[in-house]
Amino acid sequence: MEKGRRDITMNLQNYRQPELIKQVLNDLNEFKRAVTFMEVCGSHTMAIGHWGLRKLLPENIRLISGPGCPVCVTPASVIDELIKLKDITIATFGDLIRVPGTEQTLEQARALGANIKTVYSPLDALDLSKKQETVFVGIGFETTIPGIAYTILEAKKQNLTNFSVLPLFKLIPPALDALLTDEEVKINGFILPGHVSVVIGTDAYEFIPKKYGIGGVVTGFEPLDIVLGIKNLVEQIDNPGIVNEYSRIVTAEGNIAAKSIMSDVFEVGNAIWRGLGEIPGSGLDIRSEYAQFDALKRYDITIKNIEGNPACLCSSVLKGKIMPLDCPLFANICTPANPIGPCMVSSEGSCAAYYKYEK
Ligand code: SF4
After folding, report:
1. Ligand 1 center–CA 126 separation, angstroms
2. Which of 97, 185, 187, 228 could share a disulfide with 106, CB 3.0–4.6 Å?
3. Is the C-beta atom of 344 inside 6 A of ligand 1?
4. Which pLDDT tens digit goes with each residue over 114-164?
5. Where are the beta strands (DSSP E) in 170-265?
6. Which of 157, 173, 353 is nearest to 259 (CA)?
7. Residues 293/319, Cβ–Cβ less than 8 Å
8. Distance from C-alpha of 176 to C-alpha of 192, rounded to nearest angstrom
């Protein structure tokens, strides 16, 4: 094994030591109040399932999954609008192509002749646009958005005329704010997303304890990270705040350069979230200086709040109102091979995580 890789692996082993994890779990066993914590981010849901942590926690500490899966919170109408863009190349990250629209998935449309390409980076879409008119599907949270902003700046620099972005970006803090105003959602604390927090910093969550009197912890994805995060939430239950348990990569102010490139290219707007509806200030629009790269304007697209198959309970799963196992379609009609809703499609979807690890 090459040296750099060995160092990383050895480093990660520090966060996987069973004795340390057991010690934290023993401490958690001392806590007797019934609490519900939400892991906001789909990568945390996957990590919790992967390491079997849900089953190791005492019964009074319940974890529910939240809206932090970009594909899952994308309304079905987006798929319908993309399918209407005949004769134009649609470049998208892979997960989206299997998400059902109201009638078809992008994968089914591709089988019928639509020009849909999966890409690994927005820069791949930029390259495609040099040969054919291309729309990049701009789905993602604060982690992904700076790279897309950079791609738009690059398109302008290169005077590209065949490239545009469909801005479907979502911002996490306004979504948490909206979630906490829903009286049916009962949460005693948040496990806040690690990757998003690298960009926005922990300061972005300070409104949570101030406005709602509950705490949050930013933590990593290794088992020790996660159990320490939960212990932290338990310890601050009567004196809530925002704690950074992921200080090896997250700071209070976040990544200034990434935040700056985002605000150069985008301005805050509203966004429609599957399950949560339209949330003011939770999206980003392309600034007028870059309007030529805005697919909404270029193709006169309007995103509507349409959720797709009414039998799919993704909307309730995304708000933590039900667990994936509570959906009557889970694992019988709805499976990763035959997903009825986006939460079973995405590699960060709660239903997919429960299917893989907790079925
Ligand atoms: S199991 Fe399938 S149908 Fe049920 S909520 Fe999840 S994605 Fe929707």
Report:
1. 34
2. 97
3. yes
4. 999 999 999 999 999 999 999 999 999 999 999 999 999 999 999 999 999
5. 189-192, 215-218, 242-244
6. 173
7. no
8. 10
